[in-house]
Amino acid sequence: ATNLILPVLTNGTQTTNFNTAVTANGNRGVLTLYSATLFGGSGNQKAFAFTNSYISATSVINLLPVAPSGEGYPHVFLNSIGSGTCTMTISNIGYTSITSTINIHYQIVN
Question: How far apart are CA 13 and CA 8, in angstroms?
Answer without folding.
Answer: 17
